[in-house]
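lol forgot to send this yesterday, sorry. struct tokens for the thing we talked abt
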């Protein structure tokens, strides 16, 4: 992430730019199970029955939780 140093001649037209890069690898497993590797952490997700085996939270639960953090 980069943030420019504050300018002594600041104006409302100053542009602040930020960037963020996150790399993740995901693999599909049997039925609706998926596994992802992010920054050395392993994340598992699954769907509830009857589509999945209900062995891990569904993807939407991870998304909703991330909004609350």
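and heres what i got for the seq, position by position
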């Amino acid at each position: 992430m980069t943030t420019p140093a504050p300018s002594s001649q600041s104006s409302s037209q100053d542009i602040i730019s930020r960037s963020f890069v996150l790399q993740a690898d995901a693999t599909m497993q049997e039925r609706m199970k998926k596994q992802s590797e992010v920054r050395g952490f392993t994340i598992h997700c699954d769907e509830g029955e009857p589509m999945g085996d209900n062995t891990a939270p569904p993807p939407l639960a991870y998304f909703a939780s991330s909004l609350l953090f």
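The chain is about 15% helix and 20% strand. anyway ping me if u want another try
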